[in-house]
Amino acid sequence: MNTEFxxxxxxxxVAQKPAPAEPETRSRAFSGLLTLILLLILAVVPAIxxxxxxxxxxxxSDQRIPFWEIMQRGVTERATQLGYQVTTYSADNSAxxxxxxxxxxxxxxxxxxxxxxxxxxxxxxxxxxxxxAGIPVVIADIGTEGGEYVSYIASDNRxxxxxxxxxxxxxxxxxxxxxGSVGIIAIPQTRANxxxxxxxxxxxxxxxxxxxxxxxxxxxxxxxxxxxxxxxxIQDNPDLRALWLQGSDRYQAALDAMTDSGRSNQxxxxxxxxxxxxxxxxPAGVLVGAAMQQPFLMGEAAVNALHVHxxxxxxxxxxxxxxxxxxxxxxxxxxxxxLRNVLGMAxx
Amino acid sequence: xxxxxxxxxxxxxxxxxxxxxxVILVLGADATFSYFMQRDRMLEDMREDSELSMATLQQNLxxxxxxxxxxxxxxxxxxxxxxxxxxxxxxxxxNMGRLLSRKAYVSGKIRNLQGQIIDYQPDNPDHISWLxxxxxxxxxxxxxxxxxxxxxxxIYTSDAEMKQALRRLLIKTLFNNILILVLLVLLLLLTIxxxxxxxxxxxxxxxxQRDSDGLPTAPIPHIGYREIAVLTDTMNxxxxxxxxxxxxLREERNRLANIIQGTQVGTWEWDVPSGxxxxxxxxxxxxxxxxEELHPISINTWKALMHPNDLKRAEQQLQRxxxxxxxxxxxEMRMRHKDSHWVWILARxxxxxxxxDGAPVCMSGTHLDISERKNTEERLRQSASVFEHAKExxxxxxxxxxxxxxxxxxxxxxGYHKEEVVGRNPRLLKSNRQSxxxxxTLWKHLRERGQWIGEIWNRRKDGTLFATIETISAVRxxxxxxxxxxxxSDITAIKEYQSRLERIAHYDxxxxxxxxxxxxxRLRQAMAQxxxxxxxxxxxxxxxxxxxxxxxxxxxxVGDKLLKxxxxxxxxxxxxxxxxxxxxxxxxxxxxTDLDNPQAGIPIIERLHDATLAPLHMESLxxxxxxSFGVTFYPQRESVDADxxxxxxxxxxxxxxxxxxNRYHLFDSEQxxxxxxxxxxxxxxxxxxxxxxxxxxxxxxxxxxxxxxxxVEALIRWDHPQRGLLLPGSFLPVIANDELMIEVGDWVIETxxxxxxxxxxxxxxxxxxxxxDGYQFAQKDFIDKLKDCLQRHPTLQPxxxxxxxxxTSALDDITRISELIVVCEHLGIGFSLDDFGTGxxxxxxxxxxxxxxxxxDRSFVSDMLEDPEDLAILEGVLGLADAFQRQAIAExxxxxxxxxxxLSLGCRMAQGYGIAKPxxxxxxxxxxxxxxxxxxxxxxxxxxxxxxxVLFSMVELRHWVNHLERHLMGNHDxxxxxDPHECPFGDWLYNRGMDRYGGHPAxxxxxxxxxxxxxxxxxxxxxxxxxxxxxLHPGLQEIKAMRDEILSLMEKLVTP
Lengths: 348, 1056
Prior knowledge:
The complex is a heterodimer. Chain A is an alpha/beta fold.
């Protein structure tokens, strides 16, 4: 398998996150609780294994990040439904620990592995070890540079970006701001998902004849970096009418830059991915909208694919899950999906 | 010898064997050495590659191993094995081993049997087997940053590739050596074959191809190598010497044969004792035989064919030779040809062997055909006789023109004797009458055609000129010598006679100028040349003014001398290219050629004119003449011939004469065409005047109120024999501005004056006015003529005659006309301005023109009853006349109503059809007796100025009714105002009318009638709109009746 996949960019989000809002505090608490539960589960896994139950391992790069944590819940939810016991191994972004977890999972002779690797290179070794042990692997979200796997589950970044681009176009047209330009604060364009997001979004702008004002690529994903980029775009482009942030967690930096420039009412903000507070910010018009990946759904899909394989079927080699293009108009209608599949809050 | 050669060993085969063996030995040794050298080099390269890879991996793997980046170092290993072409590289990772609870984690890359790089699998027996078969391996430790032992790297190299490479090397070496061997051997063999074997074979082949003499037919090929060349050159030298010797003999024999053949000489060889003779074929051929036909041949054969008259002489000559008297026998004789004619033969011979007793034994010689020479000699003899006795002069020159010979006739004609001219050039006869170009043409003809025939003027020895007709021929002799033979006859007498005839035919004997005949020729030539050169030709017809008088006064001799002198002057004033001809008494024609445009001819014409003007001195007389020139040009728009040109120039000359002589006139062809019809018409009018077809009719002018006849206006008519009585408009325009107009004008004044006298004699005193054209007025002698007329009619009283001049003519030169009027007044002749009102009259002009009467143009009078504007003009003109105290006469009074209106306006004098039409003079007295004015006029008072609006409103009413009628008849788009208050009449009636005449008893009725008129008009209009055209007439009649009643009532308003 020579197909090259790249990581999603979620890795850096935690370290630079600003003072957490209330939902994030909840998320962290929840994350810690999950870790504790996992440790307990790990402690009892051998006994269960010996009991001959079907077991799965979920190797995740860093469960402390909400996105992965929500995906883990999706994995667990679906696995439970299908009668699997899932052990989640969070590598906390450490390659060594990831390999240790791989060795451990192999040692425990799990039925299958769901892998959200630390990076696409590390996944090659994991796949090789798993293959030598005859354990099938489904990759969720972050890809691999090589190796054999059952299925690859990812978000349809291009389509989602196109749709959110359309929402922005409508918002600009409604204000007669089509003559203005749109600035982009992007995740690194060396990543496949970054390029897909930019391409989809620009397609929507091009179709409407709206100009781009420039693109700044994030490096350290910090509040300051996002603030500076947003501020510079606003200052350099007097005709700027919108900013698109290809992430969700630094939306406040962009809003602050708009306010500090005195143009908060003249520039729109639209994001990628979601934060729980978006459920309020979008209806309030603070954000025009957001393209929301569905990590919970992705986790479920990964388990489904593995299950099909274990049942002797042939799942799709690659499965692109839709991204929810959420705006003021449709947020109410999409709210159940957002809560469950995006925020993993179905049971809350 | 050939068999022996074949038994010998082949040098070529031996050389082949030696060369092939040597080459195989050398190349085999070289291949073996190369193989082992290459093998050692490859082994060394493999070792170096392993060391390099090991160093690279040792340096880079540690970091990856420490960070558990297995995939990264796996990719590094893959890169290295690919780069250095190793067989396998294995990495033993102790860290990973610990992680996986093993001793070590072994990974790496290995090449499979197809050479592809695949992941190494430690538990794969094939992989283990492949490693065991590796040719060489080398291992090294990998140390961590802290110096700890992280793992090992093992690099395997395989000899399979080396073996394969060596096998390829072996095959390549073998292939190369075999190829070199083959090429080398082939090259050597070809070289030996080309340089040695092939030349030797060539020598052998040359020696074997021999002619009948056993000598090689071709030279032995030259070999470029010294060793062989010595041999072949020597052989060639020998062969060449033998060949040359034989060739020399053969050529000598051929040369002799050629000489005999080329000279066409017959040869003979006579064996005297036996009489046998050997002739060659040519000998017989000269006589038309073959040798075979003459068999048996002997000395008698020769004698038999000889002319009997020559035989004796031939034999005598022979005997003289035999006796030794002459060393060479030579004799010309005739011999009979086969076809019976005689052939002249020159026989020559010599005894070449004598017997011991001195008798000739063998004699040989030649026969040569000399018939042609003999014939030429005869012809020359005959020619010499002709040359001497010819009557034509004959002159023979050499190629350079130097005279070789002349005959007696030459001497007789030229006076030169032979000794005076031989060796000299014929130029001594040159007369200088011919141009150099003439001689160039002569020589050109001679060179190109060999002959020239023509006439030449020459000069005799005594200096007199003579004409010859001469034939010069270029004669080329058999020796290619060129001579010219000139044969000529003296034609001087003929030429002189011819010249006299031509002169008489073409030249005027008095002036020596070309006559009419030659002029015609030259004109036609000049016309053709003008067309060809695209330029103009000027033809001047010239007639001397006053020559006849001189002739009559001083006699013909003086006249002739004058003509000679003046023609010389005129001829001198022209250019060489022009022609002056005398075509009659004092008439000349000059033809000017090569003119770019007509203007270019003017200076020449003026020079010619000047030539005629200068005084002519003859004996004691000084005479002067002038000339009239008529000029025309060619070509013209229309095609014309020479005769037409002459006529045109003649015609123009006539115009010049008519215009006062001593001038030139240019012929205008277009104007001539246009005037042709005009002149015809003028001629007819002139004839009418001459034949008294022009008559005067008279129209009375009266005082309408008193009934007094004030006078009559004389009006010209043409009593045309075919067309009846013509009014002046049909013929006076033709003579406008023409002399004839003056004549006609004079006739009118004269006739009118005579008529006044006639009437006076009848007891009637009637003034007559006549119309005078402006052109006639402009004549300087107008007043003089008028005075003459008055003198011719002494009974005329002042005021009997009046002149009417058009207002427009008077205004052309107002100052002069004013003077004329004053002068005429003094003569008792009155003046009136005719058609007054049609010009741009102004007060200033009227004041300056002291005319007694103004005649108001008929156009205003005839329309004044219906056209308010015309009425206004009329009223204005009458006011003007009154202001300047002039009489006003209204023309064009056609009805009683016109007269009434004029009387109302204060104009009493009038003329017109309503009074009387123009009538012949004889009818006038009776008319005067019978005529009485209309009673209405008698009672018609002049309306006060304050009542004039009544008259205008009456005209407006007529105008309104007419307008309505035209509209109803479909002749006017818009109907008049239908509202009684809005029509012009209503406007006056309801305002100023009511104001001034409101108390008048007629007004009430007028208002009622007016109102009814409008009502009826509306109804009629309505009917018309509905299309009831048939019912319009009654309504219209009723409207007109009401109009007339209104007008009648209106009359009452202004009648006291």
